Amino acid sequence: xxxxxxxxxxxxxxxxxxxxxxxxxxxxxxxxxxxxxxxxxxxxxxxxxxxxxxxxxxxxxxxxxxxxxxxxxxxxxxxxxxxxxxxxxxxxxxxxxxxxxxxxxxxxxxxxxxxxxxxxxxxxxxxxxxxxxxxxxxxxxxxxxxxxxxxxxxxxxxxxxxxxxxxxxxxxxxxxxxxxxxxxxxxxxxxxxxxxxxxxxxxxxxxxxxxxxxxxxxxxxxxxxxxxxxxxxxxxxxxxxxxxxxxxxxxxxxxxxxxxxxxxxxxxxxxxxxxxxxxxxxxxx
Length: 285
Prior knowledge:
Elements: H1 5-13, H2 28-35, H3 38-46, H4 61-68, H5 71-79, H6 94-100, H7 104-112, H8 127-133, H9 137-145, H10 160-167, H11 170-187, H12 191-198, H13 202-210, H14 220-282
Helix pairs in contact: 2-3, 2-4, 3-5, 4-5, 4-6, 5-7, 6-7, 6-8, 7-9, 8-9, 8-10, 9-11, 10-11, 10-12, 11-13, 12-13, 12-14
């Protein structure tokens, strides 16, 4: 699809099927949305192409435009009346996909149109969870600005904070904390810290603890991870100090060697001068 609006019009005028599907169930409208070809897309919409046509996975043109961040295509579809909260085969709305891939402008356009910021897919995951998981800070802030529930739990009780901790998304954690998650951190009993430690995300764990997160989340597994992390930190500090001391000792050794060389050269020069003076005295009458 090259966006050749005139050619598309000729084909439609000649009777081409505006909703013909390929082997994956994609219609011309899907392809125009995927490429951000808003001219072709609006031409198809004016010819009554099915804006709610779903491919084999349930994705509609608005999903495709949103995941690609094609703002003009998103707006054209919304203006045409496309269902802003249409779910694909996994329950994901266009807002889920825009948040997942960090398409901030698409996220804001969907929110402005009234898309459900708390919509949950089949596992209970909301758009804010996905933005946190993938570290899409701009999209995450857009959702927080809209009033998205920062403490929302998925089907297993996981919060956006825990999703960010699991992947070590430190900047997403910072955005959540700045957005009002400090109380959540203090109240979760160390769950987010435990997840971060278990996944080896030490920078995330340190940030959470600095913000007042507990470290006493009750499982032995948590404590084992915490102890391992603490041992690792101690070992790291010891290694850093030993390396610094070794560097200082090497520098001192270099200075000592330099002083020895200077002294030796001074003695050599002094010794070379004395015999010459004796020879001159012996030669005098």
